[in-house]
Amino acid sequence: MTVAMHAIEIPANLDGNGLVREENRWRKAMASLLKDKSALFGVLILLGVVICAVLAPIISPASPHEQLLSRALKPPMWTDGHRTFLLGTDHLGRDYLSRLIYGTRVSLIVGFFAVFLTGSVGLLVGLVSGYFGGKIDFVLMRLVDLVLSFPFILLALATIAIVGPSLTVLILVMSMRIWVIYARVVRGEVLSLREQEFIQAARSIGGSHFRIIFRHILPNVLAPVVIIASLYLGRMIIIEAGLSFLGLGVPPPTPTWGGLLSDGKVHLYTAWWVVTFPGLAITLTVLGSNLVGDWLRNVLDPRLNSL
Q1: Which of 19, 57, 222, 265 suits 182 as a labelling partner, its CA being 20 to 30 A distant?
Q2: What is the CATH number of the domain that holds 165?
C-alpha cells in the first residue's frame, strides 16, 4: 500500500513543482546566454547563416547561375575589382557573393536534416536497446559495432556510386554512420534510468512499456541528445563540404560551400578569393555551432552547472 501511494505521488510532484523548476531552469539559461559572450556570438553567427539561407533570393545581388566568361575571375571590389561584384567572380564569371549565399542553403539543409534524422534513429535505438536489454540489446549493439567498423568514406563512395549524387542521398549517407553516437549515449543513460525508483513506481501501477519509455524515460535523456546534435551540426557541415569537394555531394550547378572550394582549388594561386570566402563561411558556421553546443552542454548537464 505504501509503495502504491509513493508511486502515485511522484508524477504529481513532477507535474507540479517539477514544471516550475523547469521554467526557472530555462529562464536562468537565457540569462546565462546573455552573460556568455562566446555563446551569444555563436548564436548570432548561426542566426546570420539562417537569415542568409532563408532570404537568399532577396539579399543576393545577382543570379548564382548567370555566366559571362568576359568577367571571369574578377577580384573583390575593394581590390580594384568590378564595382558590381563585392566578392569578385569565379572562373565562369558568376557572382561569387550570390553563390556563397545560396550555398548556405545546402549546408544548412544537409546539416539540420542529417542531425534530425540521425538523432531520431539513434534516440529510438538507444531507448529500445537500453530499456528492454537482453537479446534485443545484444542485436542492436552488434549492429552499432558493425556500422562503426565500416569505413565511412567507403560507405559513401559505394552508396553514391550505386544511387547517384543528390541532396537526399547525401543526407542519407551522412546519417547512416552518425546515428550510432546517439544510440550508444542514450542506451547508457537508459540503463541507469530504468532501475530508478520512479520507473519502478510507474511499473508497479501498471504503466505500459510505451508510456514508461516516452513519458518517463525520454524527457530525461533529451538533454544529452540536444548537446550531441548541437555539436554535430558543425561536423555535418564539414562532412558535406568534404564530400562535395570530392565530387560526391550535390551535383552542379547547385552552389555548395564544398563545391566552391573544389572549383577554386585550380585557381588557388591566381584567384585567392575563390577558396578563401567559402573556407571562412565553413569555419565561422562550425565555430558558431560549437560555441552554442558548449553553452548547451553547460546549461543542460547538471554535473557542470547548478541551474
Answers
A1: 19
A2: 1.10.3720.10
Is 160 inside a domain boundary?
yes
Domain assignment present for residue 143? The answer is yes
How confident is the prediction along the chain (307 residues), in pLDDT tens digits per residue?
344 434 434 444 444 433 445 556 667 777 777 888 888 999 999 999 999 999 999 998 888 888 888 888 888 887 765 677 888 888 888 988 999 999 999 888 888 898 999 999 999 999 999 989 889 999 999 999 988 888 888 888 888 888 888 888 888 888 888 899 999 999 998 988 888 888 888 888 887 888 888 888 888 888 889 888 888 888 888 888 888 888 788 888 888 898 888 888 888 888 888 889 999 999 999 999 999 888 888 777 655 554 4
Strand partners of residue 89: 95
Structural domain boundaries enclosing 161: 41-59+80-300
- 66 belongs to a structural domain: no
Return d(Cα 160, Cα 228) in angstroms, integer. 26
Over its C-alpha atoms, the chain yields an Rg (Å, rounded) of: 24
185's CB contacts (< 8 A; 6+ apart) are 122, 126, 224, 225, 228
Locate cell 546570420: which residue? 48
CA pair distance 155, 169, nearest whole angstrom: 12
pTM for this prediction: 0.80
| Residue 241, domain member (yes or no) | yes
